[in-house]
Every structure is written in C-alpha cells, then in structure tokens.
Amino acid sequence: MGSISLHAAGQPKIAVIGAGPATVYLLYHLHMLALSDVELDIFEASSQVGCGHAFSHETSFPGLLSNLHPDDIPPLLLDFGEWNHTCGDHRNYPLLTVLPRALVGKFLEANFNALIEILWQRNVRVTVHLDNPVTRISESEKGCQLQTGGVWYIGYRAIVNNAGLTNSMSQSPYPLKPACLTGKSHYTIFGSSLTAVDSILTIAHLNGYFTDNSKQVIYSPHREYTIKVLSPSGVFPSLWYPSSHQARIMAFMKSKLPAKFEHFEALYEAVCEPAFAHYCPQVYKQIASMKFKQALAFLTNTSSQCDAKRKLQCELVAYSRAKHDQYWHWHWQEILDAFLSLVETLYANVAYAWHSEFKDFPHSLVAKALGALPLENAYKLWALLESEVLRVERGCFIPPSRSQDSSDTFTIDCRGISPPPLKQRTPRLPPLSEGSLTSHEHLYVGSPHQRSHHAALPGLDVCDRLNRQIASKLVKTFDSNTPHLSLMNIKNV
Ligand SMILES: Cc1cc2nc3c(=O)[nH]c(=O)nc-3n(C[C@H](O)[C@H](O)[C@H](O)COP(=O)(O)OP(=O)(O)OC[C@H]3O[C@@H](n4cnc5c(N)ncnc54)[C@H](O)[C@@H]3O)c2cc1C
C-alpha cells in the first residue's frame, strides 16, 4: 500500500477530516488568528464543501427550513446580508422567519471557498481532497497519518476530526426525497423531532400543496394518503424562538455562578432559576418548585396528556398574543439554551466530574424544548392535522425493519441519535474505528457530533465555539517561533 507525503518538508502539516460547517468555522478562526506558513490538507468524503449533512443540496428540497435566522449564524468571512443580496436566493424567500437549509448551505460553501483563497495569500497551503473518505488514522514516531482510498498520507503534526454525523451513527432518513417519493398510501414515521417534521413536510409537498389565504394555511392533497407519527412524547418540538438575547442571559448567569458547585441540579438552582425569575417571571412561578427534569417535562408539555394538535394550537395562539406582551422578547427556550450552553462550556474546561451526573440526562426532552420548530412549519403541520392526512400517536414504539413494511406502507425512522455513553471520553471516530491514535494529544475534535458529550442541541454556534478553541491551540502550537519539532519531542515538551 502506497504512502505519500504531499508537501515539501519543512512546514508543519495539519490534516482536517471533513469539509462541513465545522471546518468552515475552523478555517475562519485560523484566518482570524492569522495562522501562516502551514500545510493544511482537508479530506472530504463527498464532492461538496461547506454544507455538510444538514445543509447539503441533496438534504434540502427547496422548501426545507433550517432553524437559523440570519442573526443566528455566528460571524464568518462573508456577511450574510450582503452575500444574500448579491449572490443568494433572497427573492425566493423574502418573508420567512428562518433560512432555508439550501440557502445556508450555499452561504457556507461560499465562505469555505473565500476562506481558502485568503489563507493561501498568507502562505497557508490548503489542499482539498474531495471524494476522499478517511478510513483510518494512526500515530507513529513520524507523526500522525491517515488513510484514504488505500493510500496513507503521512507526517501530520495534528489531525482535526470534523467528520460530523457519520452514517454509522445515525439512522438518518436523509436525503429525504427518495424515501418520500415511494407513492405509498400510508407513511409511518417513528419520532416527532425536527427530522420527523422534515419528513412529514417532504411527503406533504410531494403529494399535495399548501395555500395560505392570510387567515390560515390549508392543505390540499393530490391523492388519498395518510401519515402516522408515533412517538413517546406525542408532540412536536417547541415553536422557533430568536436567540438574540443569549449572550446577555449567559452574562447574567455567569454573574450568579457559585464559586463551587456540587452537582448539576445545584447549578440549575443557582444560575438558571434566577434567570427564569428575572426574564420570564410568569414561567418561573409555574416551575419554581421543580427539579430540572420536571421543569423540562412541564415546559415541553410532554408529561401531560396534551396532544400534538392542542400543543401546536396553544403555541400558535400564544405566539400571536405574545407580540403585545411585555415578555414577548424573553422566551423560556432562550434561557434553557443559554443555561445548557453554559454547562457545556464549563463542562469541557472545568467540570469533568459532572459526567457522572449526565448518565440519564434527558436528551430527548432537551431536543423537544430547544428544537425550534419554524413558524411556517408549525402552520403547515397544523393544516395537515386539520386535513386529517396527519395523525400523531403517543407511546413507545419500535420501528419494524424495512422488509416488514406492507406493500402499501412506508416506514421512516426519525428517532435521531443519542449521544454516546459518557465513558467514551475519547472522541469517537466512526468510520475510522480501525485506526488507533495511541495518544490523543494530536487529535482535535471540532464536530459537535463527534464529541462524546453535548448537553445542548449542537448547531452552528457549537461548531463555531469548538473550532475557535482548536484554531487557537493550533496557532499557539505552530506559530510559536520554535523550530520544527518531531512528534516525540513535542510529547516531551
Ligand atoms: C438533519 C439535520 C438538521 C440540522 N439542522 C440544523 C439547523 O437548522 N441549524 C443548526 O445550527 N444546526 C442544524 N443541525 C446540526 C448540524 O449538524 C450542525 O449545525 C453542523 O452542520 C455540524 O457540522 P459538522 O461539520 O460538524 O458535521 P456535518 O455537517 O456532518 O459535516 C461533516 C462533513 O464531513 C464529511 N465526512 C464524514 N465522514 C468523513 C470521513 N470519514 N472522511 C472525510 N470526510 C468525512 C461529510 O461528508 C461532511 O461533509 C442539523 C443536523 C441534522 C442532522
């Protein structure tokens, strides 16, 4: 098996696995921190750069929405507003509260290309290897190396694993279109997360159309068919909320941080409850005596007998009334989101002991609470429920295998992924599992889904945060004026 070192000896070499959104943020922070004079090899399994899974062209039939408002995209080289005006697709999506997936993907792709250009100008020699899935990584005295397509690439001083959500981790139904184009009469969807919502809407768009007569959205199917959603919660995620206040809420919480905290619940009491009391007093009154998990179940309506239709109705009514409410600007989801982001930040740096606390962390409730269902999608779901094309049932159901589908039924598994067990502190590397890095000193993990733990829902904000930290470490390591050290030397420093 051949091995190649692509570049001239001398400059430090860094390898990056994956060219998705996490890598766009890595490049951005390397640029902001003025990294220079290194070789950067980026290996990407697909033929697309920038968009990754969530925002790829295939994943997103034009109507599918992200949960991102332009203000929710952490800063990048290009300004979204300016880019969208000149190169984006703004004429097609003038009135949406959130951005279509495809548009976010194009924006990330444009940033990726612009960043590579600008890095080259500073002698960061970036090479992008498309259609090159990395299958193995390892470490030896000569440095780190990785294998792709039977070839070893050698001599890296660091590897950044930004491989994101890999097929072996998810039972992802994406890309949705082929799954939804089966022309069956009955679709059964397991789970009621945002993935389920995407699946429902893709099926609905392919089999009918929505009209908005300014009073309500109405669904007209082209043919008779049904969609049955089966999920433990029996409700859809909460209505989308802007995240514009997150920094302010986090600052408030930080001001309440106790010098020492014993466990997660104590931290919840110390920082999150006061934030609820301060920013959402009406909500606080209802959850004041509850523990974190109870409060979460209460807020997401998953502990009550509230059904999907009723919850949607309550949220849409509350949405239209809230505009006149003094608390309109403060959403309980923002507070939870800020709290969990704070936990996660501290978690990584300070509170390793908390890992044990998270053994039964209610990830599905968090997903339900922070899932952020775009308003436009909520109206469409309402129309589908009204038309009786869509039905939601609560309960614990196990999806049958595809082969068990009857000739008229199609099953889509949208139960999503749970974070791996906490004991797996070291980063997971599927599908790179055969390889082994003997120490993980030179392996950085910047994809939220590749990390062994996340408390909040991982989005572009997490990609930004993790890759800022990695970029800063890389710059410190490679911009120090120390001579080129061998790996063994680095370990002994
Ligand atoms: C269906 C879905 C919808 C989402 N919607 C949103 C949203 O609306 N807003 C939001 O903020 N977040 C959303 N997310 C979260 C989203 O995953 C993150 O925001 C972000 O896109 C993760 O980026 P990433 O680069 O870490 O991973 P990915 O997007 O998974 O990209 C990883 C890249 O690595 C490549 N790759 C994988 N394995 C290898 C390998 N072995 N070798 C080489 N290359 C490899 C892949 O081809 C891909 O291009 C969504 C996630 C999913 C799954």
UniProtKB/TrEMBL annotation:
Q: Which domain of life is it from?
A: Bacteria
Boundaries of each FAD-dependent urate hydroxylase HpyO/Asp monooxygenase CreE-like FAD/NAD(P)-binding domain copy?
Answer: 15-147
- Protein known as: FAD/NAD(P)-binding protein
